[in-house]
Every structure is written in C-alpha cells, then in structure tokens.
Design a protein that fits this description.
alpha+beta, Oxidoreductase, 2 helices, two-stranded antiparallel sheet, binds FE2/S2 (inorganic) cluster
Length: 87
C-alpha cells in the first residue's frame, strides 16, 4: 500500500494493494475520468508533483515515464510511500 495526496485539499488517502489509485480516490468522491482502465488510452492521465511513480501503462514512452511528472492512475502505482497529485 501507499498513499496519494491531493494537492488542492492536502488530504491523503491510502491505496490498498488490491485497488487502483482511481478506485481509492473514488471512494472519497474524487472522480478521475477513465476509459480503458488498462493504461492504454491516456484518458486518466494525472500530473504528479512529488513522489516516484511505478508506471504500469503502455501509453507513455520510456522518456516520458522517466520524467516522473505524470502517470495513469487507472493502473500505475507508486514506488515511494506518498505520491502527490495535481488534483
Ligand atoms: Fe486508459 Fe487510464 S483509463 S490509460
């Protein structure tokens, strides 16, 4: 598990091992638009302000992944304990 922090509110939410970031935020009324939910379409792309992403998508190039400034919360996770999202 890891945590996601919503930059606009400062609130932090736990993402359990068996759920996605999108699902974890949805439980708290924060909706991220999704389509494929498999890391293919790019619909859910969210900016990352802090923390290291564990990219699991097929959408970004390796260079884009290395920049670590956006990720696909429908499937990607975090390598650090907290990921701060530009939401
Ligand atoms: Fe398609 Fe996340 S919903 S990449």
């Amino acid at each position: 598990p890891f945590q996601v922090k919503v930059a606009s509110s400062g609130a932090t939410y736990e993402v359990a091992a068996n759920e996605t970031v999108v699902q974890a935020l949805q439980k708290h009324g924060i909706e991220i638009l999704t389509s494929c939910e498999q890391g293919v379409c790019g619909t859910c792309i969210t900016r990352v302000l802090q923390g290291e992403c564990d990219h699991r998508d097929l959408y970004f190039t390796d260079d884009e992944k290395a920049k670590n400034d956006q990720f696909t919360p429908c499937c990607s996770r975090a390598k650090t304990e907290v990921l701060v999202l530009d939401l």
